[in-house]
């Protein structure tokens, strides 16, 4: 079975075992949907998308790797996810009985977990940082996801019409994603004055007059890509046009600043300077600016004091906003530059010089 384990999973198991050895631990229990997808190469235990935890877990010791699942989930995990063929041993419990997996497989072990758990060392932050650096095969999967997400947003936004409720607009976005094999896990819609009031707008019954913001984080094979786009029926006011362009310029500055070897604190300093340069110095305080993406919408969020280093192979979803306007794409960091994974062909853009590069950043779509 070990010989059948693909290189992606072997690399990740080695990373976890090195982490365990450095902490004097004998095993780690991965219960988060994101961690399970990461360690298995994209398999899913997600049943309730409102939960961060799935119906199954992975237990990795210094010399073994197990899937812990009940009899409801095991058949699918074996038949469709092919986890036995990837080298995993199963420990199966009945759904109506308490699992004895840890007592049987790791009794007396000093264990860690990827989330707070009684009697275990919480290594959630360390695991999230492992998840955030993508292997080449994961980068290819992310490119595919980004293309699907972009196509879904284009389809949904061009179908938006004045008079639709925010629930209707959200359904357009979810449907377009699901038809492309992408699971919507965050779907936020605001129209008109609600765009100016809320950074995280949940649906309401409000009907759109002229202006809509569509935000969606979509998951496929465990990876999550994020996009925000705005559409306005009729010409933009001078004030909204100013804010939209300013926001795009901040976004371009952040992307240009996100280069391997720099700390996120340094990137954030450039972000603050970019907000000041466009005349909105305090807007960054009203919403987080994003951070590394991977198996969570944000594996962790950048802040002014962060010492985390940007690395080639990371994806970032930055989301600068200026009250009434926002920009968000998912971008892959490479040694040679940044690749926007969720770029939408044909979408109106600003071409913005930022340092030595020219970046295409999205405008608000005006429907005249």
Question: What does this protein structure show overall?
Answer:
With 368 residues, the chain is of the alpha+beta class. It has 2 domains: 2-131, Creatine Amidinohydrolase, Chain A, domain 1; 136-367, Creatine Amidinohydrolase (Alpha-Beta Complex), CATH 3.90.230.10. Helix content is 33%, strand content 26%. The chain contains 10 helices and 18 strands. The strands form 5 sheets. The protein has a 6-stranded mixed beta sheet with strand order 4-3-2-1-5-6. It has a 4-stranded mixed beta sheet with strand order 7-8-9-18. Strands 10-11-14-15 form a 4-stranded antiparallel beta sheet, with helices on one face. Helix 6 (136-159) crosses helix 7 (166-178) and helix 9 (238-257) runs antiparallel to helix 10. The chain is globular, with a radius of gyration of 22 Å. The N and C termini lie far apart (61 Å).
Q: Tell me the major beta sheet.
A: 6 strands, mixed
The helix/strand order is HEHEEHEHEEHHHEHEEHHEEEEEEEEE
Number of domains: 2
Rg for CA atoms:
22 Å
> What's the number of helices?
10
Structural class, judged by helices and strands? alpha+beta
- According to CATH, the homologous superfamily of the largest domain is Creatinase/methionine aminopeptidase superfamily
Side-by-side strand order of the widest sheet: 4-3-2-1-5-6
Approximate shape: globular
CATH architecture of the largest domain: Alpha-Beta Complex
Mean pLDDT: 96
How far apart are the first and last residues' alpha carbons, in Å? 61 Å
* Unreliable stretches: none
Q: Got a strand count?
A: 18
Helicity, as a percent range? 25-40%
* CATH class placement of the largest domain: Alpha Beta
In what range is the share of β-strand residues? 25-35%
